Amino acid sequence: MSTSRTSTRARSAAVAAGLALLAAACTFDRAATGTASATGGTAGGAAGGTAGGTAGSTAGSTAGSTAGGTAGGTAATSTSTPSFSGPTDVVGTDVVARNLAVPWDVVRLPDGSHLVSLRDEARVVRVERSGAVTPVPGSGTDGRVPDVVPAGEGGLLGLAVDPDDPTAVYAYFTAADENRVVRMQYADGRLGPPTLVLGGLPRAVVHNGGRIAFGPDGLLYVTTGDATDRGAAQDRDYLGGKILRITRDGDPAPGNPFPGSPVWSYGHRNVQGIGWDDAGRLFASEFGQSTWDELNQVLPGRNYGWPEVEGPGTAEDRERGFTAPLASWRTDEASPSGLAVGRGAIWLAALRGERLWRVPLASDGRTGEPEALLQGRFGRLRDVEVEPDGSLLVLTNNTFRGSPVPDDDRLIRLRLG
Q1: Each residue of 21-68: pLDDT tens digit?
Q2: Architecture of the domain made up of 8-416
């Protein structure tokens, strides 16, 4: 969720054209390129800017990952050993903010402070660099964001700050009959009335998706859950169980794989984390049902299998056109929500797994064996962000389905080494 002030609008048309060519060229022909180990995997590669990887794997007893690659939509493999770099250990932790009530998302502002959404209270707070927490009143009753109707896993979920206009804050929330994306003016420490950007997203007590972020192409990506309508995740006319790509005004983005549709990828169960590497590759975390959670590289028009396939699947599944994950975990080890990319890795915040997963990422897009950090330290983790100074911010989520300690929930800075 970068707040870089570089002019992404100037690049959008060229990037969209390139992505349209990529979508047209992408093939669903798949080949497994490795086998999974008990705790991780072997890696195949992706070469090229926004072109990413195809994946195939066989399941290990815990986590497994294999990856193949595409460049310009053509299947590619690499037999060379990938080069991984970056820190692998947490060498220090600092609690930045305390006593946050069911926080869901954290996004950085240009001045180094952060906005945090509080799901069940339908409020936004600002965390200063000093750690001071101040309310950011919305235009609704008692300073809430209006029209939010929290229930179960729904409420005020994802936030995104426009990289070209930091006074424009986007939010994904659960309303009475739908999930929706809105835009609010952020000025003088307050949020203005919401303007509807995209409505009609299916809602339920669970599986609401809810992460939003601006991509390197300057367009807004929106993750939706299947809202418990499992089979509809395969229906491209149903907006649940999808990753959507839209303009700032909510229109389907130019270059999307299905003309006139906001759908970027489909066959998802409940994506709650997305992020990009420096080459523009998009990665997403995926909640499984009861067997496998997933890390996917997301390519335009691809079908990620739900509910036909959960986790790595088989060669036959790939022949049927389903895209396999880069990595898979048992659900009690992960249940991944927020995701961030940086410092030579993909980072996934695990709820039920109560740990931070680090998946090494090579410059060519290949991934290494996942490693678990922070086990038994902070409980359930909802979100993770990479900061400009190279530290990480993680957001705990123990005041919902967890075992909170007196200071929960917390925003914690991790120093890496």
Answers
A1: 343 333 333 333 332 332 343 333 333 333 333 333 333 333 433 333
A2: 6 Propeller (2.120)
pTM above 0.70, yes or no: yes
Model confidence pLDDT, tens digit, residues 336-374: 999 999 999 999 999 999 999 999 999 999 999 999 999
Q: Which residues of 395-409 are buried (b: 16+ CB within 10 A; e: fewer)?
A: bbbbbbebebeeebb
Cβ(383)–Cβ(104) under 8 Å? yes
Q: Give residue for tokens 């402070």.
A: 113
The secondary structure element, H or E, covering residue 23 is helix 8-25
| Contact by Cβ (8 Å): 322, 307 | no
Contact status, residue 393 vs residue 413, Cβ threshold 8 Å: yes
- Report how far apart, in Å, the C-alpha atoms of 204 and of each of 30, 130, 284, 322, 389 are: 34, 38, 21, 26, 38
Residue 287: beta bridge partners?
A: none
Taking CA atoms, 327 is separated from 35, 36, 235, 240, 362, in Å, by 11, 9, 25, 23, 15
Residue ranges per domain, the chain? 8-416
> DSSP states of 190-258 as a string?
EE---EEEEEEE---SS-----EEE-TTS-EEEE-B-TT-GGGGG-TTS-SSEEEEE-TTSPBPTT-SS
Q: Look at residues 58, 128, 118, 63 and name the one whose alpha carbon lies nearest to residue 317.
A: 58
State the Cα–Cα distance between residues 148 and 155, nearest whole angstrom. Answer: 6
Q: Which residues pair with 75 in a beta bridge?
A: 70
Q: What is the DSSP string of 366-388?
A: -B---EEESTTTSS-EEEEEE-T
Q: Note the helical H segments in 64-123.
A: none
- DSSP β-bridge partners for residue 292: 330
